[in-house]
Write a structure and sequence with these properties.
Length: 95
C-alpha cells in the first residue's frame, strides 16, 4: 500500500511540475505559475495525513464508536439476560 501512496503522490506532483518546466524551457511560460503550488500542497497534505494515520498521531479512538468488548455487553445478550436467560458454561470455564 505504501508503494501506491508514493506513486500517486509522485504523479500528482510530478506531472504538473514537468509540464511547467517544459513550457518554461520551450519559451512560453505559464501565465499563472503559482498554480503549481496546488498539486504540491495537495500531495503534502495527503502524505502528512497518511503518515499521521500510520504513526497514530490522530486520536481515532475518540472519533470512532467503540466496539462491543464482550458478548455480555452486546444489547441483544443484555436483553436475553433480562428475560431470564442464563449464561452457559464455556469450555474454558471463563463464563
Amino acid at each position: 500500500m505504501s508503494r501506491w501512496i508514493f506513486v500517486a503522490s509522485a504523479l500528482v506532483t510530478g506531472l504538473p511540475t514537468v509540464l511547467m518546466v517544459g513550457s518554461n524551457l520551450g519559451g512560453s511560460p505559464w501565465a499563472d505559475q503559482w498554480q503549481i503550488a496546488i498539486p504540491w500542497a495537495w500531495t503534502l497534505v495527503w502524505l502528512v495525513l497518511w503518515a499521521g494515520v500510520r504513526q497514530h498521531w490522530f486520536g481515532w479512538r475518540r472519533l470512532a464508536p467503540r466496539p462491543e468488548r464482550h458478548a455480555r455487553e452486546h444489547p441483544a445478550v443484555a436483553e436475553l439476560a433480562a428475560d431470564g436467560w442464563k449464561y452457559g458454561g464455556a469450555p474454558t470455564g471463563v463464563w
